[in-house]
Amino acid sequence: MFTSVAGRTVIVTGGGKGIGKGIARVFARSGANVIITGRDEETLATTAKELTAAGRVVDGVAGGVVSYVVADVVSAGDAARVAATARERHGGIDVVCANAGIFPSATLAEMTVEDIDTMLGVNVKGAILSVQACLPELIASGHGRVILTSSITGPVTGFPGWSHYGASKAAMLGFMRTAAIELARDKITVNAVLPGNIVTEGLSSLGADYLASMEGAIPMGRLGEVDEVGYAALFLASDEAAYITAQSITVDGGQILPESPAALE
Ligand code: NAP
């Protein structure tokens, strides 16, 4: 089960660290060839080497290799270059994980126009451009998969300081629904993962107090691990998930469930 990604080509934007790295690792271990992207070449090179060493050949199908392209998701030119590189290196693209994202905090009262533009530019426009550039290859693959990294914040919950972030993550699901209809006849599915609080470099930068308060709000009593988001993405990318489109999988240890703090006492 779920071994169909072996030998397939997967792009993971923001794959150098955090959740993207977890997604890339899970796909490489499943025998896929993965191209990770981001802006920091040193991080990408280190991660590509580490994940290639952890990659596997599954059922004798050549794969498990992770390479990188330095690319900014807000640039349509960079997105086109990523797609062209995947074509050259692996002959096509089967899966696009539009994962790169940012979450700087600003209250509504303090937020600048630039804050809003940057948030929506990276998280929404970046995801759309990343998918759009790969469409010819996804169509040609005959089993194209798009997996968006949204969040519980926005689609389900709110948190002070993140109204623009929540808007961006809810917007990704709006994009998902119409894209799923447009691409269904080409056998491409478009789905999302909704992480709760997952231990990443980005989340850790919010501070120990934030992490401790989040841990206390999660029924499972712990933060999530990046590979746990990767497993959900792997399922959505598999042949077994071919009939699932425009859906989301929440990966949050039950965080969205309690009606009040009393539910956790
Ligand atoms: P992270 O540790 O800060 O990693 C973010 C990744 O995105 C990095 O690889 C970064 O690479 C890349 N990135 C950021 N801006 C980019 C740009 N303009 N172009 C290309 N790449 C860019 O963050 P994370 O926690 O893993 O978050 C990853 C995704 O999961 C985001 O979409 C985030 O909203 C979502 N998410 C995270 C959590 C969580 O608890 N961690 C929860 C819900 C949703 P470079 O810096 O090299 O560009």
Give a structural overview:
- The mean pLDDT is 96.
- The protein has helices spanning 18-29, 41-54, 76-90, 113-133, 135-141, 163-183, 201-204, 208-216, 226-237; strands at residues 9-13, 33-38, 66-70, 95-98, 145-149, 189-195, 248-251.
- It has a single domain (9-250), classed as Rossmann fold (3-Layer(aba) Sandwich), CATH 3.40.50.
- Strand 5, helix 6 (163-183) and strand 6 (189-195) form a beta-alpha-beta unit.
- The chain is an alpha/beta fold and 265 residues long.
- The chain is built from nine helices and seven strands, in the order βαβαβαβααβαβαααβ.
- The chain is 43% helix and 14% strand.
- The longest helix is centred in the middle third of the chain and has 21 residues, at 113-133.
- Strands 3-2-1-4-5-6-7 form a seven-stranded parallel β-sheet, with helices on both faces.
- Helix 1 packs across helix 9 (226-237).
- Bound molecules: NADP nicotinamide-adenine-dinucleotide phosphate.
- Residues 13-14, 16-20, 38-40, 43, 72-74, 99-103, 122, 126, 149, 151, 195, 197-198, 200-203 line the site of NADP nicotinamide-adenine-dinucleotide phosphate.
- NADP nicotinamide-adenine-dinucleotide phosphate binds next to helix 1, helix 4 and helix 7.
